[in-house]
Design goal:
With about 450 residues, this protein is an all-alpha fold. The chain has 20 helices and 4 strands. A two-stranded antiparallel ribbon has the order 1-2. Strands 3-4 form a two-stranded antiparallel ribbon. α13 (about 240-265) packs antiparallel against α15 (about 305-315). The protein is globular and about 70 Å long. It starts with a strand and ends in a 20-residue tail after the last helix.
Amino acid sequence: MQNLYRGGLPLPKPQKSLLTPAKVLTFGFALMIIIGAFLLSLPPASVGGRKLDLIDAFFTATSATCVTGLTVVDTGTHFSLFGQIVILLLVQIGGLGFTTIGTLILLAFNRRISLRDRLLLQEALNYHQMGGLLQLILRILAYSLTIEAVGALLLAARFSYDMPVGQAFYYGIFHSISIFNNGGFDLFGKIHGPFSGLAEYAGDPYVNIVVMVLIFLGGIGFIVISDLLGYRRTRRLALHTKVVLTMSVILTVVGALLLLLNEDGNPDTFGTMNWMDRVFASLFHSVSSRSGGVSTVTIANMEQSSQFLLILLMFIGAAPGSTGGGIKVTVFAILLGAMYAMIRGKEDIVFFRQRLSKGSIIKAITQTWLATFLVVFVAMTLSALEDRSFLALLFETTSAFATAGLSLDLTPRLTDISKVILCIVMFLGRIGPLTLAYAFTSKSKKELLKYPEGKIIIG
């Protein structure tokens, strides 16, 4: 190729940007965690000016930014109003995504959104189209604020029977934002005792339903919500929406039935409840386990079979582009579809009369194996560091990776090194192992050579 000259000098070659969308996402979340940890370690962030240990501040900031909900100190009793607001802001930014927040700030100041910004937003939202991206961002903001506002009013109306109106309104706002963003933080330790969660509302259908709806809406993803709201106009739903809704309903119902069967005779959980309360408790924990992070019974008192079931539900997680974590329900659907196609002797995976690409299948398998290796390796590492049962360590590890927030009351008693390891797991779970791999690997070139096909024996 000929070089172009200007004034006898060759034009410089355009430099490739070192900051890919994956790197910006990774470093952006890391920066938010560092800022949050600094703020939470300040004396004004704690009640009575008790300065929080730096490791615990870092853990709390990571849990909030990654919308996990695992805690080493009780949020309601340890943190002051300033500290609680810092946590709430981290949860809100972590749920929406700092790229979404940054884009909204740019739009507010009439700044132009560059092509690079759009690529970053696509990466953050798992959105496959360039067109309509900014409109989707604005809709996300509108959906989030509307859902959180309605949830806050509904919860505040109920909490006003148990506390002063001003406190009920604040509690409504805090828990609506925390629950919708699948953050899992709660303030009821100040009223019902540290780490009590929503135990006092286990038999309250009103609170159960509001919380489950908030978790469900936060877990299906903004793209699905947008598609559902546009159904009246388009009269059609995208394949992604159909798969997410179908799998979410199936997992919720199956999980609730298995929990009900396992815990029906357990006097420490569902055994002392009436029939209706048992149904609500089963549904609640089936929904919450896939990233909600709140509970109405003590998970540590559940049967081991139920705890392992919750591990599986947490590992599967919520939908892509949502505030939840896990390998995602669409990935689990693809794995089931691949198994079904293989058993039936078919070459293609077909959902709702649409064939999936081989690229989607390979990505789903890769994502599952990366997640499995990470969770198993970390659980084995923690078992070498901690004198605890392996199931409990596996539960905490899966909860951290899936940003689920459920706990067997083990996290506050872990050593500092184990807390740091779980922070790394929460971080990886929020940005995704594949995103991290893309961030630190060079872009692969298109292969110009194909090797001959070989065969190995399987089965």
